[in-house]
Amino acid sequence: MTEFSLWRDSKLEQALIRKHALARATDYDTEALTENGYFVYHLDQLAQHLAMLQQQNTIKLWYAVKANPLSRIIQTLDQQQFNFDVASYGELEQVLKQGIDAKRILNTGPAKSKRQLKAFLQQGVNTFVIESLNQLTWLNEAASELQCKPTVLLRVQLQWQNDEKNPLGGNTVTPFGLSTSLWEGIQLSDYSALDICGLHIFQWGNMLCHKKMYSLWSTMIEPLLTLAEKLAMPLKILDLGGGLGLDYDAQQNALNWSQVVADLADIKQQAKVDELWLELGRYAVGQCGYYVTEVIDRKTNYQQEQLVLAGGINHLLRPAITGQAFPVALLNTQLSDNESCNFHLHGPLCTSLDKLGCLTLPANTKVGDKLIFGFCGAYGFTESMPFFLCHQLAAEYVFQNNQLTQVRQSQPASSYLR
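and the corresponding structure tokens:
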């Protein structure tokens, strides 16, 4: 433990250590009972990263709000001129509350009812990814009634020769979009209230290999262009979704944004489209977030070192879904020369699924120590399963201009139990 990990930030950690020191000086027991884990988002770090992403004119960037819908996150993205991809009415309301113009919102998601589509139109949303024949009909009817003409992208689901699975489906059948053969059966003239001018395809998530991404994107071009030709569709827009990954393991295989942009410039030229879109979630905000929780117990079991933590998959579900851990360190600004040890990290839930990984920490890690997990800015708070066993909901903080500010208090089970 002689090097300061690349994902850590010393100023943020100093602020967190001061926070815990203040709690110990006042009422440590109360803090332990009311805040068993919390998230903190480094907004200065986020703004710098977003500004770098926008230093190109090849891709129109949308933020996938599902990654993290916190108001301060959305405001920071707005300041960096991102547009917003929302997949539910709740996400729409949250984005609109931050003063975002509805014309900068894209409606995605597989479960769009006729009522929801009409409600989005009434709120001023004008751009939709359509995933079924029913949705196409419903949106056309609603647009005719409201006398507007929204921009529509048809979501395509392709099949692949390999057998690789992925959270977005990969080669498996998912609710996302339709096959090219099904879309080929429509007549654009039957949907005169819609401007159907784009295609959307997104089946692979958290990718870290430039060569593989480029190969997948290139393979998509021919069937999409063939579909557009059969529909006599003026293909103006191609939306490749997101899928750009973070290297949760060691930050040694991180994607190079300049290479991503160069690859996509070539894809844009191959597709001959006016606009190429990406919907970034994890890649936009993942690296700006941290999660902190306390060591509750330590034990040795069958020659394996175990730490039981105050928070687990009730706050961070991703390890249980993907089998991949978040990076972790002891919350301490003093670099440690102590021997390291592999620990199995378990959360507080009564299930063996509640495990955050087997990770290396100082061998003298003890009960009461605070652990800080990195890359928790995406798919943390709102992807968790906080209600099982009636533990507290996680608090949320932001760190900006060297100031730590709480934006959401930890809530006890009594706040949601009836």
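(Above: one complete record from the training split.) The chain has a mean pLDDT of 91.
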